[in-house]
Amino acid sequence: MCLAIPAIVTALEDDDMAVVALEGIKKRISVALLDEIEVGDYVLVHVGYALHKVSPEEAERTLQLMAEAGILKEELEEISGGAA
Amino acid sequence: MISEGRVEITLPRGRVATMRYDRPVDVTPVLKGQAPEEVMPLVSAIYGVCANAQAHAAVLALEAASGSAADASTQRARALVTCMENLRENVLRIALEWPKLIGGEPEGPAVRPAISFLPRIRLAMFDGTDPFALDAAARMNGQAALDVIADAERLLEKEIFGEPLDYWLSRRGHVGHIDWCVSSKSPAARLIAHLADCGWMHRADIDCGSIELPGANAVALWPRQLARAGGLAPFSTDAAVPETTLFSRRARDGVVASLNNAGLGARFLARLAELARLPGEMRSVLEGGAEPKSVSEYAEGAGIGIVEAARGLLLHVVRLHNGHVDRYRIVSPTDWNFDRQGIAVRCLATLDGHHDEDERLALAHLIVNAIDPCVAYEVRAG
Questions:
Q1: d(CA B338, CA A36)
Q2: A84 found inside a domain
Q3: B99 and chain A: CB distance < 8 Å anywhere?
């Protein structure tokens, strides 16, 4: 249902790619849809693409909500390859 | 993403295809006990991708439950925001995913401007305020709205259709679409050409009825049934579950209807028809020539909100008790379309007995993408 988890950008790579992390789990994504992404930015990631930048405050609030809703643990499994 | 839910299709060699749909984690418990004005920020935060459609359905349900309603201009402004989200989402799906279906690479940079359309239309309609707050009031800048709609139309013409939208919408039948495929080299045209080359335009031609808005039956019947069951038992278990897809939304559009079937080609063309129609429909809503297509209704003790989201109808049902949320239910298009009696299973069943396993796998991918779950999916050979 169109959930998107905020993740922090930890590295920028060539070809509009970046590495994002959440709770220490890293994933390579495309940032081709966004302008002016920097290391330290929070982005909403969906099916391998960063869709929006979000403020650190907004990211923290969303992650807290997702944890309360029981979403976050399973999202982390997905990011870490726990599910195909 | 697994917590969004997941669709898994398995195609055992020589045997019937199976489909498993795991619904997303139910997030509605975090809404229980909240005051209505606290619900929309939570919904928007959790459903980050289609946040506007979700918040729109939520506010319509909560307004109905509270006995309130936004004024007409605010309703139109909200509708424009949700329409633009539909446009953005389907542009991204086509540019990022359709090329992969035919062995190509995603074409993200070409559609990057689409990311800006949604914040621009929100600003034009609400001047920085929250469109989906319970006390929202539109502050329309009509010219700014027209400008972003025009930019969206230009992007569609350049990157998706390769020709003016009106011209594309005037195309009819197989010959008309093939002519477009020859003249346009867009990812969308290449996919349709691929379907035609393979003889797959008519594959998976299944009709199991549809849910539509607006319409007396839609408003009077199925939302009330949902509400009566507390939003917990939406589907019949002994009959085909009707579909709510972009095909069911655009099946009567001439560009789709002229194919006279509900096959793969018609389904992919329906998504294109949605995109080609949206700019004109947004202008019409903006200028007051068309009413927003949504439902906000109180029935059986519950508020019901329904909007046309990017993949079909999105429904929120809420019951309030002492001014706070007592029960909350969200039914997504995927819940209907990937139900075990839904359109996806029925389309996949048409592949039974298909002897070319590679082709069967490719067709299953196309069927799932054409119906388009809002969750991750996997198609694998058994």
A1: 38
A2: no
A3: no
Residue A34, in any domain of the structure: yes
Amino acid making up residue B235: F
Quote the Cα angle for B106-B111-B115, to 5°: 120
Report pLDDT for B341.
Answer: 83
Instruction: Report which of A55, A29, A32 is spatially closest to residue A42, judged by C-alpha positions.
Output: A55
Backbone angles phi, psi at A39, to 5 degrees: -60, 135
Q: How far is CA B116 from CA B87, B97, B302, B326, B374, in A?
A: 12, 20, 36, 37, 22
- Is the omega angle on the peptide bond into residue B214 within 30 degrees of 0, that is, cis? yes
Average pLDDT on B35-60 reads 87
CB of A1 less than 8 A from some CB of B: yes
CATH of domain B2-164+209-243+271-381: 1.10.645.10
DSSP assignment of B165-229 equals HHHHHT--HHHHHHHHHHH--SHHHHHHHHHHHHT-TTTT-----B--SS-HHHHHTHHHHHHHT
Which residues of chain B does A34 touch, with a Cβ-Cβ cutoff of 8 Å? Answer: 112, 115
What is the C-alpha separation between B28 and A8, in angstroms, rounded?
26
pLDDT of A6-38, one tens digit each?
Answer: 899 999 998 889 999 876 788 899 898 888 899
Interface predicted TM-score (ipTM): 0.74
Angle, helices B72-101 vs B51-66, to 10°: value is 150
The Cα-based distances of B267 to B207, B209, B218, B332 in angstroms read 11, 14, 22, 19
Name the more confident of B282 and A47: B282
| Residues in chain B closer than 8 A to A71 (CB atoms) | 3, 25, 27, 46
Q: What's the predicted TM-score (pTM) here?
A: 0.90
Confidence of residue B262 (pLDDT cuts 50, 70, 90): very high
**Is A26 contained in some domain?**
yes
Q: How far is CA B174 from the centre of its chain?
A: 25
Interface contact A3-B4, CB threshold 8 A:
yes
The whole-chain average pLDDT of chain B stands at 88
CATH number for position A59: 2.30.30.140
Nearest to A51 among B2, B49, B378 (CB): B49
Q: B169-222 pLDDT, tens per residue?
A: 999 999 999 999 999 989 999 999 999 999 999 999 987 777 665 444 444 455
Q: Give the domain extent around A30.
A: 5-79
Instruction: Give a yes or no: residue A53 inside a domain.
Output: yes
